[in-house]
Amino acid sequence: MKNGKLQVYITVDTETSLGGAWRNPAYSPLPVSKTVFGECGSEQYGIPLIMDILEPYGFRATFFTEVFCAYNLGYGEVEKVFRYIRRRGHDAQLHLHPIQRFYRDRLAGRPAREIDLMFRLSPAEQRELIAEGVGLFRQLSGTTPRAFRAGCFGAAETTLAALRENGISIDSSYNLAYLDRSCGFRTRPLNAPVEIENVREFPITVFRVAGLAGYKPLDIAAVSTSEILHVLRRLREAGCGHAVLILHSFSLLKKRGVQYDRHWPDRIVIRRFRKLCAALWQHRDEMEVAVLGEAAPAETLSPHPQVIPSPGWLRPSMRKLCQAVNRLPWI
């Protein structure tokens, strides 16, 4: 714990989608204007708004930026994303969805491989794809990534070994809520940083919901500010030094259809994110917003307790009610 403060990392999976193009040739991969910048009329509800909400408090986020989509959208489109992140002073790190690479291969006449989970590939192919991703990241951003997150949290211990061999020292793919689904780690349960395969793993922070099985990640688009703050306080009280929150570049939008046929601002999630940032600022004596690209190396980090808090039943119940209201099409 740095200076007695919980380090809070706000991470943004900055990516686009094939938009159903794998199975419907009439569709095309979605442009970054929709999924990354969140253009809606004359306004932008993607990473520009996320940054607008963070920056008045002096906060920065880590934008895990997917680069294989450059094969399908053009290198210039992804360069534009990196330039924007760099210009506004935030932290860009590496994100990979193998399905984007395999879609390019399929269009080139190679065998169709509808695989998006990195850990389902052989260790050798994981090394090759990560090396390719690191090379693309350098070419498009002019920098070398220090941290990584697998698309769909699809990493495992074999992925961390491949990251180490490619010079990446930090991973944030572990998500306890997705183990045995899209997340392939065998080490469990983790809710605080550990070293695996000489890579520092920063799990996405989760909590338990009273009376229910499984876990909920601190996804700003899916859980309430009250739940997030309760979990952060309990972690700090237990002596944990780090917490990882997640959202996506399109989290502040509602959308209909795989091609985003209709999309509009998600006012409830936008208000929630504003409220969360204000609360983190109010609690700045206890919590510090940081970026993973500047996290201390493994050898300087002491072990942390693997605590999984529960905010009880009332907060989740209130959040579910709010989410039910938010599903109404006119909200």
Overall description:
With 331 residues, the chain is α/β, with parallel strands linked by helices. 33% of the residues lie in helices and 18% in strands. It contains 10 helices and 15 strands. The chain has helices spanning 32-35, 47-54, 70-73, 75-87, 98-107, 123-141, 157-165, 225-237, 267-282, 314-326, and strands spanning 6-14, 39-40, 43-44, 62-66, 91-96, 147-150, 170-171, 194-196, 199-201, 206-207, 216-217, 242-248, 253-256, 262-265, 287-290. Strands 1, 4, 5, 6, 7, 8, 9, 12 and 15 form a 9-stranded mixed sheet that branches. The chain has a two-stranded antiparallel ribbon with strand order 2-3. The chain has a two-stranded antiparallel sheet with strand order 10-11. Strand 13 and strand 14 form a beta hairpin. The longest helix has 19 residues, at 123-141. It is globular and about 55 Å long. The termini are far apart. The model has no long low-confidence stretch (mean pLDDT 92).
